[in-house]
Amino acid sequence: MDKKNKVFVATSIDGYIADKNGGLSWLNLDWLHVFPNPDNKGMGYDEFISDIDALVMGRITFETVMGFDVPWPYTKPVFVLSSTMTEIPESHKHKAFLVKGELTEVLEQIHKKGYYKLYIDGGTTISNFLKEGLIDEMTLTTIPILLGSGHPLFHKLPKHIKFKLIESKVFMNQITQNYYTRVE
Ligand SMILES: NC(=O)c1ccc[n+]([C@@H]2O[C@H](COP(=O)([O-])OP(=O)(O)OC[C@H]3O[C@@H](n4cnc5c(N)ncnc54)[C@H](OP(=O)(O)O)[C@@H]3O)[C@@H](O)[C@H]2O)c1
User: pTM above 0.90?
Assistant: First the structure.
């Protein structure tokens, strides 16, 4: 089975995935909606999500999405990483599953359940995967705004990780999207 860990995330020019209040994402947004989008183009999200088996998400992203005033947006299982959460809230018990331990062990548990193509989400979480060389592909959508502070996509890494640009797109003449794969 082809095991892949993929990132699909929108960032500000200065590399934040949420402002300092934390409540922003590509799902329900203030700053992602600053540009008119009359054709309602999904910028590749629907194609991306239909091709993955499950999500692995940080606790902060999970709590943020739970707090959105919209129905649960995922039809695939969501594995939530946390060292502080003791259980998934009752309302989300059959949609999300708590996972703990070393990332390689967590991945093994998820693969054993039959999920191989994984969407890794949340800045701290993505960086934790990167630190262990566990991200294979990244689609980074850059919104032309400087947030100045907030939740960064990238944190410190112990070494360089090389990626190759596979495709680059521009939406609405404003938003750039780069698709990278890791160079082995
Ligand atoms: N713009 C976008 O496309 C986009 C996408 C995703 C998220 N967001 C936004 O980004 C913000 C959240 O990002 P974030 O970087 O602050 O946090 P995050 O990655 O969502 O969550 C971080 C938390 O995940 C848990 N975690 C991560 N790695 C772990 C590991 N190896 N083992 C155990 N637990 C682990 C820890 O939870 P504990 O503290 O419980 O241990 C950690 O505090 C939210 O505001 C969200 O809306 C934006």
Answer: yes
